[in-house]
């Protein structure tokens, strides 16, 4: 059968985060939203030729991040513009193919990229309306018109309309067809554009479901979560400790891929935690978590030396007893300071807290400490912090000297991190209970099964010394979970589970039904049984020598 040339219409967009209305620019109050983007897409698709089955003949393609940044993207970024990748994979333009035929080369035809949040069409494009392909773009200095790369902006603001013309190659070629011409147009969503009625209805249902989900429990605390300024901005607090511990190992997988052995610790400030209220003991809802953690700046990772840590710590304690947001919240370090001394001279000692877990993480933990020396250019430490602080705000100018390992584009907000951890904890509880009841778990990933089996063994071993009824067994399992809560393996495994398993089984937001316009369904009795139980505590990681009673 002889192949003929074809034209393939494509609509491409990438990196979307917000479905709600967003301002077009900081200088105007006009907004756009996803319903207008959907209407634009519908209008463009309506121009495609019809197929025999009545559908339109073309492709809608997406790339990049969907509503949450990809941590892994920080590993594979290289050149932001994917120029080198396009050359390596022979995504060559029609003009470049004249001197370097690719019909017998394995590779790709075109790279439709994401993650950079910019609009870009390479110089190898035959023609492109409403975008100048000859403009200079940072990261694309090596684009000589020989490759095909397209990036279509971010956040439902841009849409690329592409027409690719393909011609058949000679018999026995590696590629059956190659691109002979590529044309396109950049479409920008504007405030006056009409809205899609169907998308508007769906968005209304989704946002209604989100509002309902805010009231659902995410964990149960055995102690008070006191985030009043008079508490967390003057001294070590259980709440700040707990949130900091959760965030410490969230990026460990990505850091290991960069040659680092995970993070050493966390450096937040007390101003991170809002609500100025007391929560618990008892049920904590998703709304409570978002009230405590309202900020949208991402959590990032820096590499710093000991001097930077000392300078940051001195600055964070310099305004005490004023209830400023700069007061520190840490994990992975132990600090002794003296509130009686003058600002800038209050830090006495800082230690890095090290832990080593035997076996799979379910066994004993060996704890050690090593001094953090106040010296420039010495040992480097990997710390998790907020982008807001890394930019020097709240007095943290010292952190601006750090080398960024995971940036804001690839990081997540603290509320997202905490929610992922709590979802994974709930999932683990559900799976352990299923194993106890011999229910089917074949859908689990191998690593998840190992984590579940280890925890189930702990419960089984503990039950030998406790009453065998289910209530007592699970009561002790909760105690075990609390005891294990700050182990490195615990947090690492839970974040991995949240990334690899389908959380819809335990998610408070019933996305599957919401996307179909249906009401969310949940089994409150089962939900309560699987809720993670937490017990934040003060452990002396931030000890004020000027207050002997401080513990």
Name of the CATH first level of the largest domain = Alpha Beta
Major sheet, described briefly? Answer: 5 strands, mixed
Overall pLDDT level: 82
Beta percentage is 15-25%
The CATH topology assignment of the largest domain is 5'-nucleotidase,  domain 2
CATH-level-4 superfamily name of the largest domain: 5'-Nucleotidase, C-terminal domain
* Sequence stretches where pLDDT stays below 50 over 5 or more residues: 70-81, 473-486
Order of adjacent strands in the largest pleated sheet: 4-1-9-10-7
The gross shape turns out to be globular
Q: What is the helix tally? A: 16
Rg (C-alpha, Å): 27 Å
Q: Could you explain how this protein is built, in words?
A:
It is a single chain. This protein has 551 residues and is α/β, with parallel strands linked by helices. It folds into two domains: 6-195, no CATH class; 217-507 and 521-551, 5'-Nucleotidase, C-terminal domain (5'-nucleotidase,  domain 2, Alpha-Beta Complex), CATH 3.90.780. 30% of the residues lie in helices and 23% in strands. The chain contains 16 helices and 24 strands. The protein has helices at 34-45, 83-88, 94-99, 197-213, 229-232, 238-248, 252-257, 286-292, 306-317, 387-390, 414-436, 446-463, 470-484, 488-500, 511-515, 524-530; strands at 6-16, 22-23, 31-32, 59-66, 111-113, 119-121, 127-129, 149-152, 158-168, 177-188, 217-221, 225-226, 265-269, 278-279, 282-285, 299-305, 328-331, 333-337, 347-357, 365-371, 380-386, 403-406, 533-534, 542-544. The strands form seven sheets. The protein has a five-stranded mixed β-sheet, covered by helices on one side. α1 packs antiparallel against α4 (197-213). The radius of gyration is 27 Å and the shape is globular. GO terms for molecular function: hydrolase activity.
